[in-house]
Write a structure and sequence with these properties.
- The chain is mainly alpha-helical.
- 10% of the residues are buried.
- The longest helix is centred in the C-terminal third of the chain and has 16 residues.
- It has a single domain, classed as Multidrug-efflux Transporter Regulator, Chain: A, Domain 2 (Orthogonal Bundle), CATH 1.10.1660.
- It is built from six helices and two strands, in the order ααβααβαα.
- The chain has a two-stranded antiparallel sheet with strand order 1-2.
- Helices cover 60% and strands 6% of the residues.
- The N and C termini lie far apart (56 Å).
Length: 97
């Protein structure tokens, strides 16, 4: 986060988040802030192939915001309501086949 503070000066956290929402391609410090994690943990996720990154110049890493959003939405917890809905649909479909 300190990298972003230096980069954006005295801009508030909310304003930085708004800027990050508007960008399609993020740098490593921006991606870490967008996800709310440290850069070290972001590097671990990249190493484990959990998050896709791009390195056109073999130095800096870049991330698509949509990939980061997809990562944040992964491993959703299943609710009781969705389980009942799936079971009901499964029963209905099997009875009419």
């Amino acid at each position: 986060m300190s990298d972003l503070k230096v980069r954006y000066g005295s801009t508030s956290y909310c304003e930085i988040q708004k800027l990050l929402q508007e960008k399609k391609i993020l740098t490593t410090p921006e991606a870490a802030m967008f996800l709310g994690i440290s850069k070290n943990y972001l590097y671990q996720l990249i190493h484990k192939s959990k998050i896709r990154s791009f390195s056109p110049n073999k130095k800096m890493l870049y991330f698509l915001r949509e990939d980061l959003e997809e990562y944040m939405m992964s491993n959703a917890r299943i609710t009781e309501k969705s389980t009942l809905r799936k079971a009901t649909n499964s029963l209905l479909n099997s009875k009419f086949k």
